[in-house]
Amino acid sequence: MSSARIPALVIAALVAALPVPTSHAQTPLGDDALAQAVDADDLAAIKAAGPAVMSRLARLYPLSDETRRVRIAIAFYRLGWKSEEAKDALMADARTPNQALRINVQYALGRVSDDLAVVDVLLDNMQHDGSIVFRDKAACALAYDQVHLRPAQKVHLYEGLIRAMSDPKPDVRRIAALALQIQTGQDKGFHADDPPEMRGPAIGAWQKWLAEYRSQL
Amino acid sequence: MAAAPAPARAQGAAPPATVLVRYGFDDDSVATGPDTFAVFRAAHGRVALSSAFRLSGYRSVEISDVAGNGDFSELQGYFPEQRSGRVFAHFALLTARPEEELNVALAGPKRFQLGKDGIAFWLATREGRFVHVSDSIPKRLAAVRAFVWYTVDMAYDVERGRYDLLIHEEGRDEPVVSLRDQPGAANQAASSVDMFSFISDPLEDVSEVTYYVDDVAIATSRAVAVPPLIAPGRRKLFVDAFDEFRHAEDTRPRCLPPASLADLGVEARDAGAVDGVLAGTAPAAPAASAGVRAAAEWRAGCAALEEGQAAAALGRFDRAASLAPGGRLYGLSGALALIALGSHAQAGERLAAIRGAWPDDAQYAVVAAMAAGARGDLPAAREAVRAAAEAGDAAAGERYYLALLWDGRWREAHEWALASARRQEAGSAAAAAWLERAGDAAFRLRALAEAKELYEAAAAVDERPSLILKLSDVAFLAGDVEAERRCRERYYGSLTEE
To answer: Which residues between 107 and 146 in chain B have a beta carbon less than 8 angstroms from any beta carbon of chain A?
Structure first.
């Protein structure tokens, strides 16, 4: 269930575009044509090449300058097809100082992979990156883009977010709690700016919840 | 539409008093729309009436999907929002491939996300088992067998955000699932519901499911009046629904943007710092100038106003005015907060007090018109903004049109909109927007041929969903059944036997 389907409603129809069926037919696309499609943000042409295009984009990625790598990362994000090669290519830039590249790589990683290494690098960026912007965007990626994780893998994500809710940096506590809230729809009474003695019981409630989550696996 | 069985009660639940929607999918006429349901077919997927399997009558709905197509198939239904009482959901489903994922949910105005007024009830099949998401945890239930009907009865206590769940398997007397007092999907009390969804897998796009749904019924324990459908798939015309939405949006006070730094009482040397503050990329430093700190207060006030916290917004705007008395936008923003609070007299007093700071300014006129409209004085709203509108200010021109429209002066609104359209660059989005407004006024005048012409002219420039749906209304009133259906189904899809 995705909010992207709201356009069916009258009110959302005010602002939403007509849902367009997606072509699943696979059409050949040469290497030059693929690079051109990437440069032109022509997702329809890229998508028409089918899931095999992920490997080809992954091979093109390290050969590209940073501008094109941003475009490939955006294409990976929008395609959302799981691909080990795509994940490996993107991971090389998971800590790049280039802001546009870093943000798009962080967003795309969860869309192409269910590897816990992705969750770990995003958790690490969220807690320890020197830039508040990168920390925040890593949390966004953890909140919205881990679409391939299975319930057992989500335990790892939740553990990391709950751990980060005790971080000494208030912004890290805040974004970790927000990511967990977006994932679960709950806050269990946690407020990042409360004193530690008030945050403790809320974190305890989250840990109890996590134990129950684990018990259901 | 053939009658589906009434929703059964889960254990201990009060009896249903009102059936909100009920579908057996056996009638010839299964019109989609904002008050019935919408159909989304994934590429190479299917959502269609089927006589291959059915629990009652002679048809059900088949929903199928293929993996990796970047899309998903869905039957999404709507019913009047329920904020209290017990809501009963009854449906039957049969899956051909239990190992493939399917999802069923009951959600509220925040749609299909976990949280208050989002998903309240979420049932799925994963790896051959039923799963329900309760307290944000996917919990495994009974195994699912292929080609067997399962009848699901759920009784949701809206205030407590908890539900009872019964699932019966065809041919077995005892339920395969019987749960009492379960936390809702995100464990949220008072989480309202107004829609349901039968879908494949909306996130991972790996499901190759084919399943069938029959006998869907949603009821409430409360005695409520459910307005009748007045046109296919809708209880009100699209034109009226869009009008109501626009009225709610246009009468909701929100901050107007500053025309210059001086509006915020910020000096030119602070331009860089205030840019970061207004963009939200940098907080106001403790040592920042009073002007920059005032701008930060104003921005926070605007955010509070957006979130409906008008009292907090007013406090922020007043603090900003104290920090930078030269910032004339703070007084105007305060008036907006007072309008939002319903303090009409105080809003009027504040506007009178700051009138001198806004000589012949359209922004002031717009706020004054909004204040007059909020206290129900539509002629004053119109007059407040007329001069600025006639002088060519775009925001004032739109406000003037709305003041005419809300006051039922449709002929004047129609003329104003046409004149405004002519003032725009031909073929521009702005011209199209005014053509649509002229079409709305023509529709009100029941000049259907002209309304159609205007909507079509606007759509030729900018084919917005609102235009196509309004054309469906025009066709409905004109008795053109085929055009009505064609326009409506562009957005809501169709449910037919293919």
So the answer is: 107, 111-116, 118-119, 122, 135-140
